[in-house]
Structure formats: C-alpha cells, structure tokens
C-alpha cells in the first residue's frame, strides 16, 4: 500500500509537471516562453567553469532575449577541466590536468544530451564495460597492489580470497553482524563516514576500503566526510529499519513485483524520471553509451568546454568578463534586482563568495573606485560559499614514459587508503591512474602514460604545498616504490589544483538548508546557485545541476523563490521506489 502511494505520488507530480509545460528534448528546439517579454533583461553568471558554462548554455536557450554576462576570475574559461597535448619523439601525448573520464550513468543524461546538442558524438572515445579499465581497480595495501573482485569475474572467490589474505578485507564479516548492531540513537543527525562504517561494520573496513574509495572521489578524510550526505541510502535504511542489511531485504521482500527497489529522496527520484523522459539521444549515441563504462573525447575532456565556449562566444547575447573577481552581491533597495560588485583580478585560485554577510555594503567598499557595480535581474552563481564546506587542494602529476607496458597491472589504476603505513606512502599520494589503459585513442605514441594524484586531505593543515619540482620528484618516487618504474619520463606536467574539491563534512545538509533559507530570504530567488559545492563533485553532477537549475527557472518562472536548492528544502520523507531501468534513446 505504502509503495503504491509513493509511486502514485511521484507519478502525479510528474503528470502535473509535464501537463503544465511542453517536454524538453535535446533534439527539438527548446520551448520558448509564451511571451518574450517574460525574459529577464540582464542575467549574471558567476564563474566560467563547467557549471557556469553549462548554465549559460541552458539559460541562453530558454531566455533568448536576455543579455547574459559571464564573470570569471581567471583569464581562461573551463575551470579544472584542462587537456594539453605534449610533443614527444614520434608524436604527441595528451595530458588531463583535472577530470578525465565520465561515467554514462543516469545522472550523466544532461551531459550526454549536451554532447549531442554540441555535435560532439563523433569526438567521443568509449571504454567498454569489458575492458580491463572497467573491471580492474586496485587498492594498495599494506605494501602491494590488490585487485578488487568484480562481478564480471564470473567467480569472484579467488580475488576475494586474495584480498582477505592481504588483510585488505579484514573485518568484512562485520557485514553479516550488521543485522544485530544497535540502531543509532535518535538524536544523532549526522556522523562521519568513518564512524558510521566502524559502528555498523568494522573500523578496518572504514580505514582500508572506504578511505581508499573516498580518496579516489573526494581526496577526502573518512573521519570528516558526512555519512548522511555521501552514503544517504545506507544512512536512511538504518534510520528507518534499524539495520542497513535488513532494511534492504525488507524493502525488496515486500515487493509484489519483480523489480529491484531502493530508497529515494523524492526530489532525486523526480529528477531521475524527468531526465529519463526528457533527455533522449540518437539511437547510435545511446547504444554506444549503454555499452560503455566510461567515456571521454579524442582531444580530452576540454573538447566539451571548448565547444561550449565557442557556442557562447558566437552568440551576441553574451558578454564574457575574464580576469574579474566578484566581491559581493547586494540586494538593491526598492527593487528586486541584485547588484554584482566586481573588480579586475590577477588571482589564479578560485574565489569564494560570502553570499549572506551580516551587513551588505561596507562604506570603504561603497566609494572604492576600483570596484565595478552592475545591476542584474537574475544571478546564477557557481562560486563556493566559504562557510558551507572546506575544500582540499590536489596535486596532479602526469607522466609519459617511452617504453610501453611499464605497469605490471592492467586496469584503471589504484588507490591508497589511510591505513597504508607512512613508510609506504611518505609522498602522501592518494592514487595512481593508468592512463594508457583508462582511455585509449588520445595519443599518437604507445609508451606508458600515468597520473599520480597527491595531497587532498593529507595537506589539510599545510601552509605551503610542494613545488612543481618536488611534485615531480614525489610522483616518481611513488611510481618507483609501488610499480618499479624508474625510467626518465619523456614528458610530464605538474598542476596544483587549489581548493579543487569541496568536502561535504559532517553537518553539511543542515548547513546547506540554512544557507538555502538565508539566500532565499535575502534575494527572493534572484540569486540561484549551481556547482560542485551544491550538486556533487563530478563533472556530470555539475552539468546536471545546471540543467536542473535551468529547468527550475523555466518551470517555476525566473521570478520564483527557488534558489536552486529545492532538494534540501523538500520536507517529504524518503520513499521506496523501483530502481529506474532507463533507456538512452528514443527508439
Ligand atoms: C586518486 C585520486 C582521485 C582519482 N579521481 C579523483 C581523485 C581525487 C576525482 C574523482 N573521481 C571520481 C569522481 C566523481 C565524479 C565523476 O566524475 O565520476 C571524482 C571527483 C569518480 C570515481 N573514481 C573512483 C571511484 C570509485 C569513483 C566513483 C564512481 C565510479 O565508480 O567511477 C576510483 C578512482 N579514482 C582515482 C583512481 C586511481 C581510482 C580507482 C582505482 C583517481
């Protein structure tokens, strides 16, 4: 009964949404407003990274009569996504300084539809679901590289046995005992991932497995990151059923149909359904995506940014202000407009923005001639709010060696958990990507390409980070100790990505809720937020956030009160829903 009620609820919400407006389709031209007078005169986009550019692209389609200004602190657009080719003897090698592959999961719908809209389908490179890069992921522990079991192994027992033998899976039996562990006290509203896993399963699983995985996504510390935000389903299952394992079986045992069920936040489920219905792509692209574990582009992920930038620069609606820092946002008295205060900037690090300072404009700011003031009807900001999350800095070292197959393992790469003794990881590396396997088809030479990622949570209290020379030396030292690679690299690059990854630490949801309320109260929906601090740390998350924000502007009207954080303000309880078996293409 309960399940039917929830399904009916989602369906009625969807019917309501879809009956009140035409569907959006990546192929058909987007719906225009009934009256072009409805478009805001002036829109500001703060930040020219992936979230800013994607927001600009979507918003321009929906508001063709608006004048849109993009503000970016650095001289280049594209944010952390940067792909560069290096000449080496015999050809060229491509290095990614930031993200490099995307996963074609349902949350990637907006990205894939964007790839199609930008005519980039021919540029895409796929890694198949059967490739070693998809099935072979490793964890270094305590002094060797262990391959993780994968469902495609057929018989997973040999890999499981090896992981048990090495001690990597120590405490795994705690999963069975989880059924009998006491439920968390009612007054616990969040806790760290480390504490949650130690309490429910075993501390060693937290320190070995969870720590490795969270180094590989957030470069983060399991003792600080929030279990409620990062592992929402297990967290909710314990809250509702007293145990994660019994909760999962409970949900599925009561299912009258043969579908797999899970817990969903109602907003997430509606968004997933909307993406599935509204964002269909051509049959060939859909088929290729279905068969892929990850994808990128022949000339790297920057292809997407360059194409977006090209479309934006070719559109007279836009003005782009690079090298421009944002100082503050002020509500203009007697109007609904927002004043954007900016100045020219030489800073290469991204600037946070205090959205809701206690006072609006200081008198020294008011008469500062170096500050520029412009009124806007709508501001879409991708700038991080400093009080919401801390961030970590990650040093990325790309290396190319002329000898092929230097790595003694085939696969995506390996991660290094916090439990690895210091003497095995004095460089404070987080993991190593085997680029030659991870994405094929980007280089015209066939040596060995790897990336070493260092820092992140390990550098939390550091006032100074390793220089480029030190970074290279550290990366080479990791490769020599862990993989036996001692060759001179033919090409290399070190990039230090300052404050690159926000950390959703314990209490994040409460802080986000307060932030959303304050932002709404102060700017009445004229300032909306998108980006890795709000939507998730991946490229897909950022594009999905931009798509969803633009969809909200269209459906709710740009004069609506939403700030783009509807999920955190949605009081509806989590509900049991069938896991979506979505199809990519229209056919
Ligand atoms: C060693 C450090 C890092 C590696 N990648 C990242 C860091 C900090 C950054 C990163 N990786 C993922 C994301 C999430 C969003 C996305 O774009 O998909 C981010 C910001 C994805 C990811 N990488 C790994 C996992 C388990 C995930 C989650 C989704 C998935 O299963 O693909 C594992 C992983 N990351 C790195 C390595 C070497 C590695 C595994 C061997 C590098």
TrEMBL record:
GO terms for biological process: protoporphyrinogen IX biosynthetic process. GO terms for molecular function: oxygen-dependent protoporphyrinogen oxidase activity. Belongs to the protoporphyrinogen/coproporphyrinogen oxidase family. Protoporphyrinogen oxidase subfamily. Pathway: Porphyrin-containing compound metabolism; protoporphyrin-IX biosynthesis; protoporphyrin-IX from protoporphyrinogen-IX: step 1/1. Its cofactor is FAD. Catalyzes the 6-electron oxidation of protoporphyrinogen-IX to form protoporphyrin-IX. This is Protoporphyrinogen oxidase. Residues 350-371 have a biased composition (Polar residues). It is found in: Mitochondrion inner membrane. It catalyses: protoporphyrinogen IX + 3 O2 = protoporphyrin IX + 3 H2O2. Keywords: FAD, Flavoprotein, Heme biosynthesis, Oxidoreductase, Porphyrin biosynthesis. The keyword Flavoprotein applies. Binds 1 FAD per subunit. Residues 340-371 are annotated as: Disordered. Pfam families: Amino_oxidase. The keyword Transmembrane does not apply. Residues 50-551 form the Amine oxidase domain. It comes from the Eukaryota. PANTHER family: PROTOPORPHYRINOGEN OXIDASE (PTHR42923:SF3). It comes from Lophiotrema nucula. GO terms for cellular component: mitochondrial inner membrane.
């Amino acid at each position: 009964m309960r399940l039917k009620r929830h399904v009916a609820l989602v369906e009625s919400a969807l019917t309501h949404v879809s009956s009140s407006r035409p569907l959006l389709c990546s192929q058909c031209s987007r719906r225009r407003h009934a009256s072009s007078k409805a478009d805001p005169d002036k829109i500001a986009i703060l930040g020219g990274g992936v979230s800013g550019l994607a927001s600009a692209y979507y918003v321009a389609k929906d508001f063709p009569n608006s004048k849109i200004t993009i503000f970016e602190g650095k001289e280049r657009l594209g944010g952390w996504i940067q792909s560069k080719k290096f000449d080496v003897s015999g050809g060229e090698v491509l290095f990614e300084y930031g993200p490099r592959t995307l996963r074609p999961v349902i949350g990637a719908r907006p990205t894939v539809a964007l790839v199609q809209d930008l005519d980039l389908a021919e540029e895409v490179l796929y890694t198949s679901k059967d490739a070693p890069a998809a099935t072979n992921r490793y964890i270094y522990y305590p002094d060797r590289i262990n391959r993780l079991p994968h469902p495609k192994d057929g018989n997973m027992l040999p890999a499981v046995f090896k992981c048990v033998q090495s001690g990597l899976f120590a405490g795994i039996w705690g999963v069975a005992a989880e059924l009998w562990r006491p439920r968390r006290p009612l007054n616990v509203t969040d806790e760290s991932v480390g504490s949650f896993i130690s309490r429910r399963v075993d501390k060693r699983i937290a320190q070995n497995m969870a720590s490795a995985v969270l180094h590989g996504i957030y470069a983060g510390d399991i003792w600080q990151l929030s279990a409620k935000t990062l592992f929402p389903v297990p967290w909710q299952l314990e809250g509702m059923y007293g145990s994660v394992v019994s909760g999962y079986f409970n949900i599925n045992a009561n299912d009258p149909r043969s579908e797999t069920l899970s817990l969903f936040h109602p907003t997430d489920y509606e968004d997933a359904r909307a993406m599935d219905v509204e964002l269909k792509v051509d049959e060939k692209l859909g088929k290729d995506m279905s068969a892929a574990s990850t994808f990128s582009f022949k000339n790297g992920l920057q292809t997407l940014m360059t194409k977006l930038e090209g479309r934006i620069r070719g559109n007279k609606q836009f003005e782009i202000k690079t090298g421009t820092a944002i100082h503050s946002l002020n509500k203009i008295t007697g109007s609904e407009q927002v004043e954007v205060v900016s100045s020219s900037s030489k800073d290469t690090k991204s600037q946070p923005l205090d959205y809701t300072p206690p006072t609006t404009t200081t008198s020294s700011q008011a008469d500062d001639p170096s500050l520029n003031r412009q009124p806007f009807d709508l501001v879409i900001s991708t700038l991080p709010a400093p009080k919401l999350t801390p961030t970590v800095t990650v040093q990325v070292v790309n290396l190319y060696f002329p000898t092929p197959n230097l790595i003694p393992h085939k696969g995506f790469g390996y991660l290094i958990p916090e439990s690895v003794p210091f003497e095995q990881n004095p460089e404070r590396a987080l993991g190593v990507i085997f680029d030659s396997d991870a994405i094929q088809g980007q280089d015209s030479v066939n040596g060995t390409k790897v990336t070493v990622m260092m820092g992140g949570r390990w550098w939390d209290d550091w006032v100074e980070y390793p220089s480029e020379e030190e970074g290279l030396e550290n990366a080479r030292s990791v490769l020599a100790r862990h993989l036996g690679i001692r060759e001179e690299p033919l090409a290399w690059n070190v990039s230090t990505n300052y404050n690159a990854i926000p950390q959703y630490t314990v209490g994040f949801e409460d802080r986000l809720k307060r932030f959303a309320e304050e932002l709404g109260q102060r700017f009445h929906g004229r300032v909306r937020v998108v980006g890795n601090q709000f939507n998730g740390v991946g490229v897909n998350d950022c594009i999905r956030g931009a798509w969803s924000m633009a969809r909200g502007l269209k459906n709710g009207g740009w004069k609506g009160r939403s700030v783009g954080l509807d999920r955190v303000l949605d009081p509806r309880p989590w509900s049991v829903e069938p896991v979506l078996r979505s199809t990519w293409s229209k056919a």
